[in-house]
Amino acid sequence: MKYDVILSGVGGQGVLSVSAIIASSAMEEGLQVKQSEVHGMSQRGGAVYTNLRLSDSAIYSDLIPVGSASLILSMEPLESLRYLDYLNPQGQLITSSNPELNIDDYPDLDTLIAKIQTLPHAQVIDARKLALEAGSGRAANMVLAGAASNYVPIKPETMEGYIRKIFQRKGDKVVEINLKAFHLGRNA
Amino acid sequence: MPEMVLLGDEAVAMGAIHAGISAAYAYPGTPSTEITEFLIQHSKKQNGPPAHWCANEKTAYEAALGVSFAGRRSLVSMKHVGLNVAADPFMNSAIVSIHGGLVLVVADDPGMHSSQNEQDSRYFADFARIVCLEPTNQQEAYEMTRQAFDISERFHIPVMIRLVTRLAHSRSVVQLSEPRAENKLEKAPNPNSWILLPSNARRQWHGLLDTYKEMQQFTETSELNHLQLNPNFTDFAVITTGLAKNYYLENLPDIPSQPSHLHISAYPFPAEMIRTLAANTKRIVILEEGYPFVERFIRGVLPTDMEIIGKESGDVPAEGELNPDNIRPVLGLESRTGSSHPDIQLSNRPPQLCPGCPHADSFNALKIALADYEKSMVTSDIGCYTLAALPPLSAIETTVNMGASIGMAKGASDAGYFPAVAVIGDSTFLHSGVTPLIDAVAYNTNMTLIILDNETTGMTGGQPTILPSSRLEKVVLGIGVDAEHVKVLNAHHRFDEENSKVIKQEIEYKGLSVVIAVRECVETAKRHKREGGKA
Ligand code: SF4
To answer: Which pTM value belongs to this model?
Structure first.
């Protein structure tokens, strides 16, 4: 079994933390994991992504080959299209519908969303709205992690356990909000 | 056996800790920064050996040399261009008899994700006549770092670990092994081997050339270099170095017969192994992450029957990174296809200064000040503020290397250009800007230096500047810049007008002036607030 995920977004959106939830949960379930990250200059508001590779056998390349990703999980709609070459034609794309408007030539949002929806397996989620419903706009990442949990080869309970673990020190309330966001994403 | 999930950088750090280092030194630089970040945390939380940021890579290297002279092990890490700065101690450290193990980690950046060139540090290792090890994954990064210290002490040479961005910043599980204790504190037994007077240096160089033969013997027989022959398939054979091995193995299942394969992890490269591989084929495909280093040696200049396929032959991309896809053509494989793109223009999203960044305000003030001049020149440097080259600011005209802005403005001014303005960050100034400023002081050059003091090393994630920001002014005054023409500004757009006036006035002054624009980086300020909140 091999399962490649590209997580994309804009520097500062927390792409790495969502990636870490999936990666750590996969490891807990005994899978081998490689996670290639972007540090440095691009993190300043530029396009960022991680290549996350899960497998039950040895993983060689840190980079995902063209056409081999099973999932693109994007924190931002424009960014969801940047790595389509890497998505298997049967693969799933999940993206937040909330744009990060830090560039002048951002395409028309409605057209962009409509184009994403023409892709064969695409799910567009208003992550911010669901996060607010869960109790905090900052939990948008967890909404997306929840949506991804329907596809990644990991038990949702394992991911929930990890979410509990990372937010524990911030108190029960924060844990609850993030778990709720996770569930709203999972059921979106 | 315990295991940890580590970045390639962190695996190196962990390897160094378990090899028994007594100190570590570095200047932050992507993609090497996380090595020292990890060691600093280890030092703080687990009372590990001291890990220090230094003013620049040269001073870092020299501190590591001192540790070695005192008999103990040390790690010094930097990005590839940092080794240009540290080249002097590096090249000469190969001539002395290294005592306590000294390992230099250099993180190259093929593809230039966060750098101004993609120089390949293996050339430096070859230049200095030392051993270089090149891991392909996090586990090897850990193990080879440990081994590098033993090699260093065995041959009395510094040993280089060469990383590249994709390994430095990729995370995976690493199996750890038993830690080793630190070395005894015991000065190098023969100080003559550290005093590079010509008479000693000649003897040491002679010794190094002898030792080099032993190093060749070592890499020829070491398991770090792995040769796998398949006499039943002779169409082509493959040599890989570094991460190219991973990309090759990723594609191997698609190749109908398994070619003979030599993977090189340890340099000087194993010439005999290459000859054995060549005896088995008429065609060698060479896949290297970086420059065609091995390929050029093998190719040579004399005609041969051997067909050598690689970067020099134009079959493998000569620039940027290798990846699992761009090596498929030379392996005779069809390209893979992915999902098709909907038809919509994908606007680029280049990195940019954070909202509220003090640099943006400083550049705006500078632009107002320069607006009245028909022509002007703004040389600049390396840091977040390099992003001011991009629109909408488009405020700087050069970025070459650490500290170059100041020397270049001096040169332009000497050539008659006016106004010549240099813009540099606080950390870059302390790294390599003080010496060129001394040159400008010596001749009272007609130029204006603007030091953007955001009180941190911003681009690499907010490491503390080596001296507190409050001391910058004293440094500038201390080397003799006229106090009348040293101005400190508050880099906030509220003061745009008055700041631009001061800058203009200093540009008009016919001599050297220094303007220090101070305001903390917003990212660092946020972090300090968080940390302060916790305490
Ligand atoms: S990290 Fe700091 S210095 Fe760099 S762009 Fe952001 S605010 Fe400016």
So the answer is: 0.96
